[in-house]
Amino acid sequence: MTEAAFIDIDWAGRPVRIEYQWIARDRAAAPLIVFLHEGLGSVAMWKDFPQRLCIATGCRGLVYSRPGYGRSTPRAAEEAWGLDFMHRQAQEVLPALLEALGIDATRDKPWLLGHSDGASIALLYAASYPQRIAGAIVLAPHILVEDLSVSSIEKVRAAYLETDLRQRLARHHDDPDSAFWGWNDIWLKPAFRHWSIEAEISAIRCPLLAVQGLDDEYGTLAQIHGIARRAAQTELFELADCGHSPHRDQPERLITAITAFIQQQPHGDKP
């Protein structure tokens, strides 16, 4: 894995610095997996999972921190995310990043692997750009807001205010307040209770693997079952003894399942 690097993109008329990291970039003929982190994630918080998966699949990897996270440009203190913040990441930030890095997604169609909010962003990208994606793997995705999700996010808010959570997040984010409050505030807005991407999912045409831990404190099986009802090609993978982060709780089983899924697709075993 290479060291993290930075590139500027134009987003909403202003330059934004994006932290990113390549895995096996010299493997030019191999499929590309783009990793999209969770609501409090970053390049660093994936740890070694992207590298392990790329070794197992023979793929290249691109890991990045969204604006407001990791070492990317922090969210301004007065900047509040809108109800469409995941749509904007899928339809504005990710395409701009791919273009800035010289990735022509119409020819070099990436696989997207997203976790939590990142999984929802992957679904939205797949629905918006069906000709620019090879397939998607979504871990603990959100397609609607459940009471369980809100309850758990309220508990995390209390932990951020009352425990050392802020200090722990500061190891991975230049501005932990930017990362935390951008995510937490929008999820706890009353209007966000009505957020849903169920209608968009019906437009997804690419291969899709949806993964849910059976002990997930942020979502239930209703999330991935809802995806399968709207995108018939979806393969479901339900993991016992697994919470909200399958790549941390059950990495070996997850890597085996993803490797098999990618390699069963046309050209998925391309070296």
From TrEMBL:
<keyword id="KW-0378">Hydrolase</keyword>
<dbReference type="GO" id="GO:0016787">
    <property type="term" value="F:hydrolase activity"/>
</dbReference>
<dbReference type="InterPro" id="IPR029058">
    <property type="entry name" value="AB_hydrolase_fold"/>
</dbReference>
<feature type="domain" description="AB hydrolase-1">
    <location>
        <begin position="33"/>
        <end position="255"/>
    </location>
</feature>
<dbReference type="Pfam" id="PF12697">
    <property type="entry name" value="Abhydrolase_6"/>
</dbReference>
<dbReference type="GO" id="GO:0016020">
    <property type="term" value="C:membrane"/>
</dbReference>
<dbReference type="InterPro" id="IPR000073">
    <property type="entry name" value="AB_hydrolase_1"/>
</dbReference>
<protein>
    <submittedName>
        <fullName>Alpha/beta hydrolase fold protein</fullName>
    </submittedName>
</protein>
<dbReference type="InterPro" id="IPR050266">
    <property type="entry name" value="AB_hydrolase_sf"/>
</dbReference>
